[in-house]
Design a protein that fits this description.
three-stranded parallel sheet; mainly beta; 68 residues
Length: 68
Protein backbone atom coordinates (compact mmCIF):
# COMPACT_ATOMS: atom_id res chain seq x y z
CA UNK A 1 0.00 0.00 0.00
CA UNK A 2 1.50 3.38 -0.96
CA UNK A 3 2.28 5.83 1.84
CA UNK A 4 2.14 9.60 2.19
CA UNK A 5 4.78 11.33 0.06
CA UNK A 6 5.18 8.39 -2.34
CA UNK A 7 5.32 8.69 -6.11
CA UNK A 8 2.71 6.45 -7.75
CA UNK A 9 3.20 5.08 -11.27
CA UNK A 10 0.31 3.48 -13.15
CA UNK A 11 2.03 1.69 -15.99
CA UNK A 12 0.79 1.29 -19.58
CA UNK A 13 -1.67 -1.60 -19.82
CA UNK A 14 -2.66 -1.39 -16.14
CA UNK A 15 -6.36 -0.88 -15.31
CA UNK A 16 -6.44 0.27 -11.68
CA UNK A 17 -9.59 0.91 -9.64
CA UNK A 18 -9.27 3.38 -6.75
CA UNK A 19 -11.29 1.97 -3.85
CA UNK A 20 -9.79 3.87 -0.89
CA UNK A 21 -12.09 6.44 0.73
CA UNK A 22 -9.26 8.92 1.40
CA UNK A 23 -5.74 8.46 0.12
CA UNK A 24 -2.64 9.75 1.84
CA UNK A 25 -1.15 12.85 0.21
CA UNK A 26 0.99 11.44 -2.58
CA UNK A 27 3.82 13.48 -4.04
CA UNK A 28 3.11 12.49 -7.65
CA UNK A 29 0.66 10.26 -9.48
CA UNK A 30 1.85 9.46 -13.00
CA UNK A 31 -0.88 7.81 -15.09
CA UNK A 32 0.20 5.98 -18.24
CA UNK A 33 -2.46 3.27 -17.86
CA UNK A 34 -6.02 3.71 -16.60
CA UNK A 35 -7.18 4.86 -13.14
CA UNK A 36 -10.91 4.66 -12.37
CA UNK A 37 -12.76 5.78 -9.23
CA UNK A 38 -15.00 3.04 -7.79
CA UNK A 39 -18.58 4.24 -8.26
CA UNK A 40 -20.26 3.31 -4.96
CA UNK A 41 -17.85 5.09 -2.60
CA UNK A 42 -17.01 8.62 -1.46
CA UNK A 43 -13.41 8.94 -2.61
CA UNK A 44 -10.91 11.71 -1.99
CA UNK A 45 -7.70 11.51 -4.01
CA UNK A 46 -4.91 13.59 -2.45
CA UNK A 47 -1.80 14.40 -4.49
CA UNK A 48 0.55 17.32 -4.95
CA UNK A 49 0.84 16.54 -8.67
CA UNK A 50 -1.13 14.37 -11.11
CA UNK A 51 0.45 13.79 -14.53
CA UNK A 52 -1.58 12.03 -17.22
CA UNK A 53 0.75 11.45 -20.13
CA UNK A 54 -0.51 8.47 -22.13
CA UNK A 55 -3.22 7.25 -19.80
CA UNK A 56 -6.76 7.87 -18.62
CA UNK A 57 -8.36 9.10 -15.39
CA UNK A 58 -12.01 8.12 -15.10
CA UNK A 59 -14.17 9.78 -12.45
CA UNK A 60 -17.55 8.98 -13.97
CA UNK A 61 -18.92 9.83 -17.41
CA UNK A 62 -21.88 11.64 -18.92
CA UNK A 63 -23.80 8.35 -19.01
CA UNK A 64 -22.68 7.30 -15.51
CA UNK A 65 -21.73 10.44 -13.52
CA UNK A 66 -19.72 10.10 -10.34
CA UNK A 67 -22.39 10.71 -7.71
CA UNK A 68 -20.26 11.04 -4.57
Amino acid sequence: MPKEGDDINIEPGWDMILDIEETPIFNLIRINGKLTFKQDMNITLNAKHIFIRAGELHIGSEEEPYEN
